[in-house]
Amino acid sequence: MNNTVVLKLGGSVITEKENAGVIDHTRLMAIAETIASHNNSPLILIHGAGSCGHPEAERFGIQGGVGQTNAMGIGETHRAVAGLNATVVSILRDAGLDAIGIHPLSGSLAENGRLISFETGHLAGMARLGIIPVLHGDVVMDRTKGACIVSGDQLVLRIAEGVAPCRVGLATDVPGVLSDGRVVGMISRASLNGIDLGNSQKTDVTGGMKGKVEELLTLADAGIISSIFHIDRLLAFLTGGEHGGTTIMGADT
Ligand SMILES: Nc1ncnc2c1ncn2[C@@H]1O[C@H](COP(=O)(O)OP(=O)(O)OP(=O)(O)O)[C@@H](O)[C@H]1O
Ligand SMILES: C=C(C)CCOP(=O)(O)O
Predict the structure, then answer these.
(1) Is the CB of 172 under 6 A from ligand 1?
(2) Candidates 3.40.1160.10, 3.40.50.1820, 3.30.420.40, 3.40.1010.10; correct CATH number of 5-248?
């Protein structure tokens, strides 16, 4: 383990998920300022697509597989989320952060919706130099499905497995995993029963909170703890304070 931090900004945080293509610039500027003022660790950022990708992925039926009839959807979906990434990177750079956008479509390969070829060495190298690689959920070529959607949550899993970070956090628009209206402080595979993990309230092709928890439980199986918290608690997460969210741990912890 090293002192690298892996942080995901949920698509519901940086876009208006109910308004296709609308980016929340004000919130992004506030996030950039918080990171610039308080982050002192090597940082790798991932963000979701929110309303800049999910509508396109749904419209072209990407998750059902890609062939000649919907191949156009690859470019249209990537264009939407790459445009969001360019805005995220620009706002981070305006805040004085050395952010560089990285597109999973360029150079990764999936099989049946799961990444099978995904390099992380260059990300760790950038982070060690004080550069912030900014990746995002993306459409990725797939050996069996033609192409698929790789969520930011799956990228968190693969990046954390590759760089062995000291801290992994996923900021979203809810305080954590909720059960009966209350935040569940800790989740492991043994404690999942009874928690209703559903999809997002808005257009979402990657499984909402259920998909998120599944990826993070796999990460916990590899011995890496992660947390889901509300974006308003970003400062607490960055400084190692109490973020009031949900910690996802391994079965034996
Ligand atoms: N048990 C639950 N606790 C909390 N949120 C839940 C739960 N079940 C379903 N949800 C929904 O999951 C949403 C968060 O998942 P979502 O995938 O939208 O997060 P995100 O990371 O911001 O988006 P993206 O994955 O597109 O980047 C919440 O806004 C809520 O509507
Ligand atoms: C829909 C696309 C293009 C990416 C989805 O990534 P997520 O928003 O992190 O689930």
Answers:
(1) yes
(2) 3.40.1160.10
